[in-house]
Amino acid sequence: MSFVSCLMPFAIFVFCPETETATTALVLRPANPSYAVEGTNFTLKWNYALDGSLSAVQFSNVTGTGDDPIGSRVGPGTINSKRKYEARFRAQAESTRAELTILAVQLSDEATYKLSVVSSQATFIWDSVRVIVHSPPSNIIISSDQKIKAPALLTLNCATDGKPKPRITWTRLSDNTVITMPLFIISGRNEESYRCTADNGVGKPLSKDVFVDIQVPVRPMVEFTSKVFVGHKQTALLVREVEGNPTPIISWSPCHRKNVCDKQYLTISKVQTARANYSCTARNALGIDSATTVLTIPFEQEIKDE
Ligand SMILES: *[C@@H]1O[C@H](CO)[C@@H](O)[C@H](O)[C@H]1NC(C)=O
Ligand SMILES: *[C@@H]1O[C@H](CO)[C@@H](O)[C@H](O)[C@H]1NC(C)=O
Ligand SMILES: *[C@@H]1O[C@H](CO)[C@@H](O)[C@H](O)[C@H]1NC(C)=O
Asked: Does ligand 1 have an atom closer than 6 angstroms to the CB of 96?
């Protein structure tokens, strides 16, 4: 007897459920919907009471309008699985219980699964369950470590995969408080770490930290350079290390019209004067600093060129 011919009389039965006897019933069925976690084995379990022995059983994928058999058997023995499902599904059924296991659940296993059971007294039971596949947070992508000048507004970003979409929370590690973006970074601290935690209630939450280096306000400082020697009519490049927060405004003196005089460097083309002082001044809200560079054409060269 094939499964189909066995089920045929009960197709009518489905339309007349009141004729079902009290002795044939589902005792326990999976929650509907049921939630499976990606990567883990997931088993749907049914318990039933039959008026007789188990005559036929079938598990199928009834997503949408289809009814695609996963595995079935008529009479005793093992369940024959369809090749398509064989590798990743395990099915078993006895006179009181049936189980369908999905091995290493994938997101594509989200489907509606149906159990059909026929007793030796030709009574038919069926149940269908929607399986929703969830996945824990994974692949966290977060802003890189930051170096900023206070005060500043800072927005740190954090994103992960996961189903349902993980909720992102930020914590300031120094006092363990939950914070929201953007951050208003004020001076007073030199560094701070922020932790992004992604949680969707599935598996373990995922977290990653961002280190923020806060550069506090600094009075301008123009670092020393020693004397600069160049050849006659050559081009000289003067470079100064300038520090300060906020970034200082730079000016060079003397400044000739053609020159760029507001950068950390000054280019002097065709040096003529044997000895000249060039001073670099840096100023910001906190103060002012300057330093002088002596530009010299070495004596011997001066002679030679003349
Ligand atoms: C899932 O079930 C298979 C077959 O029973 C077993 O080999 C495997 O170890 C199980 N995997 C997990 C994660 O439990
Ligand atoms: C179940 O059937 C649907 C509709 O035919 C199909 O899209 C889906 O891939 C099937 N599920 C599995 C796990 O094969
Ligand atoms: C350069 O500056 C020094 C010291 O500030 C000063 O003694 C010298 O006369 C200056 N040289 C020129 C060419 O202005």
From this structure: no
Q: Is the CB of 41 under 6 A from ligand 1?
A: yes
CA of 4 to the centre of ligand 1 (A): 32
Burial class of 12 by CB neighbour count within 10 A (0 to 12, 13 to 18, 19+): exposed
131 close to 76: Cβ distance less than 8 angstroms: no
- Beta-strand ranges (E) seen in 40-157 are 42-49, 54-61, 68-74, 80-81, 89-93, 97-102, 111-119, 124-142, 146-149, 152-154
Q: What spacing in Å lies between the alpha carbon of 232 and ligand 3's midpoint?
A: 20
Residue with the smallest CA separation from ligand 2 atom 2 is: 63
- Pocket of ligand 3, candidates 227, 273, 277: which has the most ligand atoms within 8 Å of its Cβ, to mutate? 277
Q: Record the pTM.
A: 0.63
Report mean pLDDT in 10-residue bins for the chain, 306 residues: 44 44 81 96 96 93 92 86 90 94 96 95 94 96 90 92 96 94 82 94 95 84 77 83 85 84 86 84 91 80 52
Q: Rounded distance, CA 90 to CA 279, Å? A: 83
Structure tokens at 39: 């990567």
Could you give the count of Cα atoms lying within 13 Å of 45 in the half-sphere of its Cβ?
6
CB atoms within 10 A of CB 15: 8
**Token pair 């509606």: residue:** 112
- Calpha distance 251→174 (Å, rounded): 40
| CB-CB contact of 196 with 170 (8 Å) | yes
Q: 295 forms bridges with which residues in the sheet?
A: 228, 276
Say which DSSP state 109 is in. G
Mutation to probe ligand 2, out of 38, 44, 61 (largest number of atoms < 8 A from CB)? 61
Query: Are 213 and 191 spatial neighbours (Cβ–Cβ below 8 Å)?
Result: yes
Q: Could you give the C-alpha distances from 266 to 114, 228, 241, 280, 287, in angstroms and in order?
A: 80, 12, 12, 9, 22
